[in-house]
Amino acid sequence: MTLNKEEWCLQCDNNPDGEKAEIVPFTVSLEGDFSDCENSVAYRYYKDPKVWAIYPRYGKKNGGTWVQVWGENFLNFD
Hints:
- The protein has a domain at 22-72.
- It is mostly beta strands.
- The radius of gyration is 20 Å and the shape is elongated.
- The protein has a two-stranded antiparallel sheet with strand order 1-2. A two-stranded antiparallel sheet has the order 3-4.
- It has no helices and 4 strands.
């Protein structure tokens, strides 16, 4: 079976209980018994970010203004 990506989409709706975002294994089977699956893919749940403040509130029209954002549940890209 060939699936057209324009017509088919998989979506994970169940967010795990807990305080932190986490990575869970995610496997899809066309047969229903996972006999056709060799590997799972990591799926990452994210907590919704909350923004407390943004400074400065305004910047130059042509851009280039550095902005600071305070809040929680931001991703760390280090």
